[in-house]
Amino acid sequence: MLNFKLIYKVLGQLLFLEALLMSLCLAMALFYREDDAMAFAISIAIIVGSGFILKYKGRMAENSMNRRDAYLLVTLTWALFSFFGAFPFTISGYISDYTDAFFETMSGFTTTGATIIDDVEALPHGLLFWRSMTQWIGGLGIAFFTIAILPSLVGGSIRVFAAESTGPIKSKVHPRISSSAKSIWLVYLLLTLSCAVCLYLGGMNLFECTNYSMSITATGGFAPYNDSTGHFHSAFIDYTTIAFMFLSGTNFTLLYLTFFKRKFLSLFQNSEFKLYVLVVSLATMGIMYFLIRFNGYDMANALRSALFQVVSFITTTGVFNDDAGKWPHITWVILSICMFIGACAGSTSGGFKSVRGVILFKVVRNELRRILHPKAVLPVRVNGNLVSSSAQVTLLVFFALYMALCIFAYFCLICMGVDSTNSITIAMSCASNVGPTLGLEIGPTVSWNILPAVGKWICSVLMLMGRLEIFSVVVLFTRGFWKDR
Length: 485
What we know:
By secondary structure, this protein is mostly helical. The protein has a domain of 170 residues. It is 65% helix and 1% strand. The protein starts with a helix and ends in an 11-residue tail after the last helix. Pfam families: TrkH.
């Protein structure tokens, strides 16, 4: 049976964590003496009260978590964090419609970065900071963060990790999952701090560099300015952003081994990382060619704009320094491919993940060989790890579900009157947690506010599924999940 008492108990503790993080935004609102302070105070009171209720319902819980408990816990955590996280927007009145507020918050926690706010610069500092913080919290995962700090999850932390971590191959830095979580969070913190320092040296003030660093290292995309990093018109800031987006799209376990364990060769011997670099390189060169030929860019601007957008799309960050909606349509195809492939598993990025691309390529190659040699034994190995037959089947099922969800969302949006190009790129953007879309009505620099309310709820669910890699959410809707045995 599902251990609901333990789930209530952990959810209550997590709500206390959300209230604590929101109190930082309250402090910022009080510091700047802006009108969102009361909204944060009321929201914190509601969240703390709800946390106590859940803790009370979970009293005397048995500290043992099975796989089904973990999947339900993870999905409920993201849903509840978004539900309560939307309160400051609606209570303050800056986003009057709760559907819009929930969409904005879910987009933040899932690091999608799609926004319904037409004028971001009209928001007070506290709400801007909360937008960026939602992405930073969601970057490595809310529940994954608790593995490092909450002892109540010790009994089932490996299952929570499996329910929330990204990619088909789970790698650990240490034998204990809590130690691995702390090591990966150390990498995340250092990336965030380093990015903030570099952006500060590039001319941003303290508030700006903090917000941008949280958004970039979480590969989220929310920015305190309407024109994102293009607001600064700085080559230094653009290339700094590119570097940290790229690093944040790399497997954090691999970064830990490379820079903390000094296993530098492991980075360049990793097949997923090599595919990641190859796709970025080829896509950048292709877009550079079209920008120079059709849009009259010089070499330097073409490199800067092309590399920035390619890294932004493949890492599913979504910040921009140029309007790709005005580029030749062939560049949209290239960026859509980057959006689909995604960066590395075990990073903060979304998408299909490069490691799945590596496995899929090897599966196809083996099948072609098997046509000529029917009795040959052809194992699939990635970085020395044997990919079992069941894992290969899971990959194909994941691909099928991903495509089915995108087609379903595309069909729904078409029925709501959204144009075809926007519909398919919106669906891919939500399922891959990218944020920007490509089209005439909703482009990379335009908000998603024109979507109908039902479309926003569909996109919110799709963002959650994309962040939790589909299976963790879909399994809740199967009959077997709710059976006692």
